[in-house]
Design a protein that fits this description.
Elements: H1 11-16, H2 18-21, H3 23-28, H4 30-51, H5 58-68, H6 74-105, H7 108-126, H8 131-145, H9 152-173, H10 180-203, H11 210-237, H12 242-264, H13 272-281, H14 283-302, H15 327-349, H16 351-354
Main location: membrane
Keywords: Cell membrane, Membrane, Transmembrane, Transmembrane helix, Transport
Organism: Burkholderia ubonensis
Length: about 350
């Protein structure tokens, strides 16, 4: 998916809609857009049920809230749509059967027991892959049947209202969706810039407390986890395979690991010879690493893959042999530079897919 419908709009209209269509603004204001979308869906539901005087129309509004309340990425919408339709159909059918059973046997206690068992079965399956279907089935069943003593006409109207609510919710879920690719892009950009900041601190010999260092690394680890959770949706939205995303994730994970190692093998405060060597001989290598991390971050944030181009630069090898205690630091710096270059190459290879 490399082109979007709004790219074919006339320039004047595209400029007027830029605040809504700009990827970064939509990412930054995703909660606000989602709130407006839900509010409009509620208004449409109320207007439709009130204008047509549909009995029990409040259930369509309740259904809209249940279905569209959670913010979903575009890559999950088709899957969720199928799950919602299936769960609603199962629940509505079960609710109508309960009403018919109640009118046939006139045994409220037996109906209550059947409802409890049905809800228990749904709860059992709610913990698993089909959890959303099971949960929605139970909710719809109770909406349609009540405690089993609803009239069949009321049950049918409630089933219709639930389906109407589902349709409204799905229609609005496609309005200005938050693409997982946007979140993945900008979170990866934040992670790369944070890596550059940590490396600048380490190479610049700026001392921070252990608590501050752990806080920085914990923030990077949290971004790594968030990126992984977005990968399945990104793969569905774009022409990027999970293998390619895993490779990018691995490069970032290794960069973070190498930064952690660099922080632990820095020379001691009283080792002036080693510190002078790092400040002079390693300056070009350190600048190269930071420049390429920041360049990749800007390419992702501003959608400029050209920043990722250029010949791959090997880290400059110091002419003088490093002090023995710095051999590990120099080696890890070279590995870090290699991982950064690999990450940039992979981002450049997949730029046509993620730059939407």
């Amino acid at each position: 998916m490399t082109t979007l419908p709004h790219t074919r709009l006339p320039p004047l209209i595209r400029h007027a809609l830029r605040p809504l269509l700009d990827p970064y603004r939509r990412y930054r204001h995703a909660k606000l857009i989602h709130a407006a979308r839900v509010a409009l869906a509620i208004l449409v539901s109320i207007g439709l049920s009130t204008g047509l005087r549909i009995p029990h129309g409040e259930w369509s509004t309740i259904t809209v809230l249940i279905v569209v309340g959670g913010l979903q990425h575009h890559g999950n919408i088709r899957k969720k749509a199928a799950e919602r339709a299936l769960g609603t159909s199962i629940g509505a059918l079960a609710g109508l059967l309960l009403i018919l059973l109640h009118s046939a046997v006139h045994a409220p206690l037996a109906i209550y027991a059947v409802m409890a068992i049905a809800c228990g079965v749904c709860a059992y399956h709610a913990i698993g892959k089909a959890g959303y279907i099971a949960l929605l089935s139970a909710i719809t069943m109770v909406i349609v049947a009540g405690h089993g003593d609803n009239e069949i006409v009321d049950g049918l109207w409630r089933a219709v209202n639930v389906l109407v609510g589902i349709a409204i919710a799905l229609a609005f879920s496609f309005a200005l969706p938050l693409y997982a690719t946007y979140s993945w892009r900008y979170k990866l950009a934040d992670a790369l810039r944070a890596c550059a900041a940590v490396h600048a601190r380490i190479a610049g010999d700026r001392q921070v407390s252990d608590e501050a260092h752990l806080k920085e690394m914990a923030a990077l680890s949290a971004l790594l986890v968030q990126l992984r959770s977005l990968m399945p949706s990104v793969s569905k939205e774009c022409e990027i395979s999970m293998q390619q995303l895993e490779a990018i994730q691995r490069n970032l994970r290794l960069c973070i690991s190498y930064l952690e190692i660099l922080a632990s093998v820095r020379p001691a405060r009283d080792d002036t010879a080693a510190r002078d060597y790092l400040r002079v001989a390693m300056k070009a290598t350190d600048l190269n690493i930071r420049d390429r991390l920041v360049g990749a971050s800007r390419a992702l944030k501003f959608g400029t893959p050209s920043r990722l181009g250029g010949a791959r630069r090997r880290p400059d090898v110091p002419h003088d042999a490093p002090p023995p205690q710095l051999s590990g630091y120099v080696s890890i710096s070279a590995k870090l530079a290699g991982e950064v270059d690999q990450l940039r190459e992979r981002l450049l290879d997949t730029a046509r897919s993620w730059n939407i």
